[in-house]
Amino acid sequence: MNIMKRTIxxxxxxxxxxxxxxxxGVNFLKFTTHGKDKEKFLRMFxxxxxxxxxxxxxxxxxxxxxxxxxxxxxxxxxxKEIAEGVLRARKEWASAEKKFFRLADRIFxxxxxxxxxxRGFVTVFYAYPRDIQxxxxxxxxxxxxxxxxxxxxxxxxxxxxxxxxxxxxxxxKEHARIPGKPRNYLWQVSEAFNTAIQLWKPxxxxxxxxxxxxxxxxxxxxxxxxxxxxxxxxxxxxxRYLL
Length: 243
Prior knowledge:
By secondary structure, the chain is an alpha/beta fold. It has 10 helices and 4 strands, in the order βαααααβββααααα.
């Protein structure tokens, strides 16, 4: 008798951690892109009061200190709202996770989820990075769009599966360089791929959001969006962009 192996889906822990969020701000400044897009990325992440500090004459040590102070101050001053935001995000994700994982099964051909301690933390900054190896991501506790935390959580979960997939199929780790392509080409592919998925009709039916290409991925996304809409074959799809 054949017994089908039951798929095990990650259980995501959502929480607030002011010190972790403060370190996120410091790290983002250290590792953000350089060149013409740097200012754009900084303004996507930091409030104006910190942009002025970052672009000013303060030392690196002072900038780090002010970024930490900002994060800790906002967490302390909005403790109740943040706690409510975490509870709301937990409830909203619980209502969507089964549908999301069924979609992910379709997208990735029932690929098992990579092992890990999946955790999401509130951030008071304006963008939501992730740590692929540690399975950690960040989400907003408050947003003018309803259920936006759900969109963010699902977006980051797609990234975790995407990078696990491309490492096994193509031998490419998260920051791998691809000859003849821009330095951050794999990141571009991952973001454009997410845009294509988020605009796919079955996905939009669950999360009820549109999607705009991440800055720097517009041309790639313009190719991927109709491609995925025509044919949902992950192997053929990514072969086209990574081989």
